[in-house]
Design goal:
Layout (H helix, E strand, L loop, with lengths): L9 H23 L6 H16 L3 E4 L2 E3 L4 H28 L7 H26 L4 H30 L6 H33 L26
Antiparallel strand pairs: 1-2
Helix pairs in contact: 1-3, 1-4, 2-3, 3-4, 3-5, 3-6, 4-5, 5-6
Length: 230
Amino acid sequence: MHVPDGFLDAPTSVATGVVALAGVGICLRKARAELDERTVPLAGLVAAFVFATQMFNFPVGAGTSGHLLGGALAAMLVGPWLGALCVSVVLLVQAVLFADGGLTALGTNIVLMAFVTTAVAWGIISLSARVLPRTAASAVGTAFVAAVVSVPVSALAFTGLYSIGGTTDVPLGALAGAMVGVHLLIGLGEAAITALAVSSVLAVRPDLVAGARHLLPQDGDLAMSPRSVS
């Protein structure tokens, strides 16, 4: 999903850079209220985990490989604001130190891989919390679905940007079909990783999972241990 330098023209790249900068500023302001002695180290761990897993590619067929985007996992564990910041930091480090995606495409990659994925994932997480049973199995299933959906939606968002500022003449229908098809497979791989990670954390510290806060005891509820939400 990393968009390289030169795929989008200068005006589009500048525009996504402005959106990325404004979005990071909003996330910083919103996340400030959520930071405490638990969320700060967890956010660091999430960013480190996303960075590490993005270094590993898995095959998705026809000589194509994919890697974790991390938006759904970050949103599930630390919420949408901190989650978007975690993925943004990962993308910045990759662009600066490894030239992965390129500096002129950094804004585009932050918009697609940090903002779109976490926003879509958090929408699914929030809706599921309202309609699904309050069980760990539901939370893990929600994490799986959020990852599956968020990745191809991000691919569609790229197609939309390419229709505005693509530098080569590619039929948009063919581009959308190829992007969504490949990234749906990537999303399945990401979903498996996301569900496994969320399940592991839920088993020992459900209080650390932002997307599973509805599983914790509310006023008037009986005390719940980590095992009681399994």
